Amino acid sequence: MSTLKRLKEKVVVTTEMVKPTSRSMKAVGAFNPGAAEFGSEVVLLVRVAEAAAKKRDGYKSSPRFAGEPGRSEIIIDWSDIAREKAVDKKTGRFPFWQWRLNFVSHLRLARLSADGFTLKYLDDKPTFYPECEWESFGVEDCRITPIEGSYYVTYVAIGLLTGVATALAKTDDFKTFKRLGIIFPQSNKDVVLFPEKINGRYYALHRPMPQHSFSEANIQIASSPDLEHWGHTEFLMGTNKEPWSSAKVGAGAPPIKTKDGWLEIYHGVNTRESGGSAGTYSAGALLLDLNNPSRIITRTKHPILIPQMPYEINGYVGHVVFPEGIVRRGDSVIIYSGCADTCVSAVEVSLNDIFNVLK
Amino acid sequence: MSTLKRLKEKVVVTTEMVKPTSRSMKAVGAFNPGAAEFGSEVVLLVRVAEAAAKKRDGYKSSPRFAGEPGRSEIIIDWSDIAREKAVDKKTGRFPFWQWRLNFVSHLRLARLSADGFTLKYLDDKPTFYPECEWESFGVEDCRITPIEGSYYVTYVAIGLLTGVATALAKTDDFKTFKRLGIIFPQSNKDVVLFPEKINGRYYALHRPMPQHSFSEANIQIASSPDLEHWGHTEFLMGTNKEPWSSAKVGAGAPPIKTKDGWLEIYHGVNTRESGGSAGTYSAGALLLDLNNPSRIITRTKHPILIPQMPYEINGYVGHVVFPEGIVRRGDSVIIYSGCADTCVSAVEVSLNDIFNVLK
Predict the structure, then answer these.
(1) What is the pLDDT of residues A326-338, one digit of tens each?
(2) Alpha-carbon distance A178 to A152, whole Å?
(3) What is the ipTM for the molecules in this complex?
(4) Which of A43, A97, A188, A322 supports an S-S bond with A79, CB 3.0-4.6 Å?
C-alpha cells in the first residue's frame, strides 16, 4: 500500500493557538475544518472543542450552551459519578450524563494567505456559535461549499431533543450566518454539497447512521431543488473490503469538478481489533459521474492519506486524518484535514497522482 | 385512567383472510393499515407479513424480495443456526442473519363500504409490492393522505443498503403507484403528511431514531415545498411522563383539520418492566396549531385507546393498538389500527369525547 506523495504539508492551526471562550473553559482541540477560497485567501471554519478549565474530584463535567440567540453562554453540568453511575434498572439505560461529552464545540474562522499554508488570522472568539436548542450540545465538523456566489456551510448540530443532526447555514462574508435549519435529521453526519446544480438539481452526500445496524455506515446521495429541502435518497457506497475502510466510510470534502468526473475525498475507518484502540481514519478518493453523481466511476483501492506524521498519530484521538476541505492550486489540490482531533493540517497533492491511483 | 367510549368497533381484516403470495409462503399478519376515503368507500392498504410456509430444523428462514421491477419474487435465505450463531469476534457484530426478520411485508388493498366497517373486497395478491433494492426486505406501515385530488402514501421501506427508511408514493386509483423515493433516510418511521399546505408549505411529522440514544424516540416536524423534498426539521414532542407513553411516541394517523386545530392520533409505548414483555402500544391525541403545526396546543394526558379486546391483547405481538388511519363520519371519527400485529380494527369514537379529554 503506497499513499500519495505529499508535495507540501504543514500544521496550520493548533489547539495552543486558540483563546478559550471564557475563563471557565480551556481549548482541548482545534480540528476538523471546513475550507474554501474566499477572495484571494483560503478561509477555514475550524471546530474548536472546549472543556471545563478545572476539575472536581468525583464529578464529571458536561458543558453545554444556553441563553438567547446571540447571547449564548457555556454552562457546565457537574455529575456526581459515585451517586449516578448505576444503570437505571427499569429502563436499562445508562444515566443521561454518561452519553454527554466532557467537551463542547463551536466554529472559529481562520484566514490563510493565497498559498493556502500561511495563517494570517485566527478569530479570538467563536465565529459560529451555538444559539438554539438543537445546537445546545455544540456545532461540529462543518463543510463549506461555494454555490452561486454564496457560501453554504453544512455542520453537525447536536441537541438534546434532535440528537446528532446536520444543519445548513449560508454566509457571504464569514461574519454573519443565516441559519437554514436541520436538513438531515438524526443521526446523520458527513454531509457535503456539490458546488453546482446537475441537470437542474442540487446534490448532497450524507451518511445516516442506522439505529440497529444490519448494514454498516454508508454514504448515501440525495437531491434538492433549493438546498433547504432534500429527498430521493439513494445508496452510493458502503464500506470497502480493504481493511482501511472496512468499518465505516463517510464523505469528506465537498466534491470538486474535473473533466473526468466529480472528485470526492472521503474518509474510511478500519475495523477495530478486538480489545484494541479505536479505528484509524484515513482518506480515499472517489470519482463520480459528472451527469449522474449517484454513479461511481471508480475509487482508490488504497488510501491516499494515512496517519503517518506525529501530529496525525498522537493527539486527543490518535491515528486520525479527517479530510473536510479541498482547494485547487493549478495541477494540485490542498486538502485540509483534522488530525488526531487536535490540529488542522494542509497537505498538497498532485491531481495527476490522484487520477493515477484512481485508474 | 379512563379511555374513550368506543361507539362501534369491529375487526375488519384478519390474517386468515389473506391468500399467500406463493405456495412457499404463509401469511402471519394482516395489520397496520393506511386508510382513506375514496369515492363512497373507505380504502385500506393493509400490511401483510408472510413467512416461509415450511420449517427446516436447525435453520432460520429470512425471506426477501428479488427480481425486476414488476416481476419481484420472494426468495428465502436459510441460515444454519448452529454454524453461524457466534458473534464475530473481530467486529463484535452478530452475524447478519440475526438482524433479519423471519417474515417480510407488502401492502394489500381492502375496500370497505361507506359505513367504514364492512369489508367488500380484499386483494388476493399484493397491491403494492417491493420492487427495488431499498424495498428488498419489505414495505410496511403505510399512511395515506389525500392531497389536492391525489393520494400520497408514506411507507417504511426496508433495504440492506438504505436500512429502515420512509419513502413516498402517489396514486390516483389504488391500482398503480408512482414511487417518489426515500423522503426520510434511515432510521425513520411513523411519517404522516398533513392534508393541505399551511402558509404555503407542506408539513410532515416524522420519528427519526437516534444511533446512540441520548434522547428517547420523539416526534419531529419538517416542511416541504413539493412533498418530495423535506427540510427545517424541528422537535415536536418527546415521550411523556405518564407511563403509557414514557418509552416511545410516534405519529399515528395523518392529522385532520378541525376548527380548534390539527387533530393528530399518535401512539405511545410504555416503559418495559425489567424482565417483562415488550411494551404496550396505546393511542393518544394531540392538537396542533392550525397556522403553526409545530406548536402543540394540548395533548391527552391519558390514552384514548388501550389494548383491551382479546384481538388487541393476543396475537403475533400482544398488547398493541397501533393507529394509522382516520376517517370522519359526521360528529365521529373511525380510527383504523393494527391490533397485536395480527389484524385490522375499526373503532368509532366521538370527536366531542376526544375534545373533552383534550381540554
Answers:
(1) 999 999 999 999 9
(2) 10
(3) 0.95
(4) A97
